[in-house]
Amino acid sequence: MRIAPADRTLPPSPVDPPPPGWLDGVPPGLADHLTTALGHRSAAVTTRIGEVVAAALTGDDDFLGRLRPAGFQLSDEDSAARYGGPVALLTGRQDLVAGYADQFAALERYPDGAYAVVPAAGHYLPLEQPEAFRDLVGHWLARLA
């Protein structure tokens, strides 16, 4: 994954409008983030993810403010780096935060890697589509046995 937002390959924004009231009950400071991060836009999913994200909002905003514009190289961005062990790359098709295309490109560095992109999911795939996530992880784990 590419850390600097300008370096990421992101999908287009959804063209279908979200259902009315899908952000009801979400703290105002979270609404913009969830509008970008979620691909499965429903009140139930938004409430579930809003609770998890709101509970985790204890980050260092000053540090993140310096990190995000400059970015940093992740260990798997070294084109010579390869990992031969099993890897599962799972991503949401509507992930407007990290995208899905860069993860597919990273698959070259994982010769025993599996890749799946889930429609109607964004950045919070495990919470947006828990059944699909469970099935994909279960299939991947069964393959390892």
Automatic annotation (TrEMBL):
GO molecular function: hydrolase activity
Keyword Hydrolase: yes
This protein's UniProt keywords: Hydrolase
InterPro entries reported in the protein's UniProt record: AB_hydrolase_fold
Top-level taxon of origin: Bacteria
This protein's record includes keyword Hydrolase: yes
Protein's recorded name: Alpha/beta hydrolase
